[in-house]
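Session log. Operator J.P. requested a structure for one protein chain; no other inputs attached. Running the standard single-chain path with token output.
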Amino acid sequence: MLEQCEAALCIHPSPEIVFDRLWARTVLTQAARRLREEFAARGKAATYEALREWLGREAGPGDYARAAAALGLTEGALAAAICRLRQRFRELIRQEVAQTV
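Structure written below.
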């Protein structure tokens, strides 16, 4: 029974669920936009574009090695850069949420 209710929410979500999803998407979009702008202001727009894929996923086998080689970094430097990118993204998300409450 619960599975049917959950499936129904995906097909016909309540207005509250629709609002929450749109709000969350807007918060994430705004935070990503600000992060991209910060990188661009430092002349590192290409670095942001190369790293942004890891904002929403974990690296698979060999991903860091390929990306590090493409960026001319060591895997350790790439991992550190991704860690800093994610940390700043979290900070920007918190700022965006704080502006809405």
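Operator note: DSSP finds five helices and no strands in the chain.
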